[in-house]
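Format notes (please read before filing issues)

Several people have asked whether sequences and structure tokens are stored in separate files. They are not. Every record keeps both together, in the order shown below: the sequence lines, then the token lines. Line labels are part of the format and must not be stripped during preprocessing.
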Amino acid sequence: MNEIESLRSKSLRIKWAMFAFFFAQGLCFASWASRVPDIKDFYGVHYAIYWGMILFLIPAGKFIAIPLAGYLVSNYGSRLMVQVSIVGYALSLLTIGLSSQIIMLGIALFCFGVFWNLCDISLNTQAIQIERLFGKSLLAFFHGTWSIAACVGALAGFVMIILKIQPLWHFFGIAVFCLGLVLLGRNYLLEDHEKEPEVKEEHAFKKVDFLLHPESLLLQLGLVGVFALIVESAMFDWSAVYFKSVVNAPESLRLGFLVFMVMMATGRFLTNTAYRLWGKRQVLRLAGMLIFLGFMVTSLLGQSTDDLILKVAINSIGFMMVGLGISCMVPTIYSFVGENSKTPVGLALTILSSISFLGSLIAPLLIGTVTQFFSLSIAYFIIGFLGLCIVLMATYAPAFKQHSKKG
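Then the structure lines:
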């Protein structure tokens, strides 16, 4: 009886430790995203294309981190790298607040991107090990935790703006809090299981073959992933700027990023229910349509009135629709891979992520360029059509048709 109670107690502590680390990552991300307009104003950046190039350094850092993270996690284990990545993520957030020159900001954002991806890979690797240890599906719970933390971070950022607290002190508080979570949870992380060298070599040869000849399914899902990550980047990096520069909302009414994150978190917790009701292919169609309609509401109707409260309400509804639509996008295409891909799951997800990541590289330059020559509202109007592209892919692409036939 004591052994059972001990195992249950250990299980609970391990889960709460991972909860803390996912929470820390989501909190760091949302803290940065909520203060983008303030940081932009601090440096007096008036050219959107220039700001887009600065923001491009985040996905550039994430891109560089893909092979680096794989090497570090494989050689030093996810237990160590989870701790290193969260500490680095929190400190790079603080460095953004400490930066006083644009070149320092650029370096800080690049490091922020590197640790962001290192967090993603090490946290998910550790989470999968926990799933295998306890024989339960826990990834959805952990990812939901990230969304909750992002909502908390967005709300905290909103409060900091209202109280006129500078980003430096805001980020300092978040960094200290996250470092505290690391100290509390580090002892409950799992040690990585060792792998035989022969298996690694064999896997390396297979990986080269699959990378040179990726299956059609992954290319189709990867294209959907590109669309999804462009939409995510548009909302993560530009939604706060949109409410300031396009909606012209005062600080007390800049709700765009907050309502978007709340609906994104809500959608993630409703996704499994939606699967049961309509099936994954139909959920993907509905999600694409919500993204399209949300951007249309914002870009076409959001400026149709001079009443500030009504304008804020209309744009908030548009942002909420986009948040609900994008919430299920990545989990759904990952699920399609797990159910239908002939490539080993871990490798298939790596290929899918690599293709999808192009969206993160395209978004800041695309949005910055369109905003510079036209407006941010026009940029959102254009990105809205990616929602329709997702609907068309889910309806006509062979990957989704085959899934429908199997169901």
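For reference, the curators noted about this record: The chain has two domains: 12-188, 214-407. Residues 12-188 form a domain with the Growth Hormone; Chain: A; fold (CATH 1.20.1250.20).
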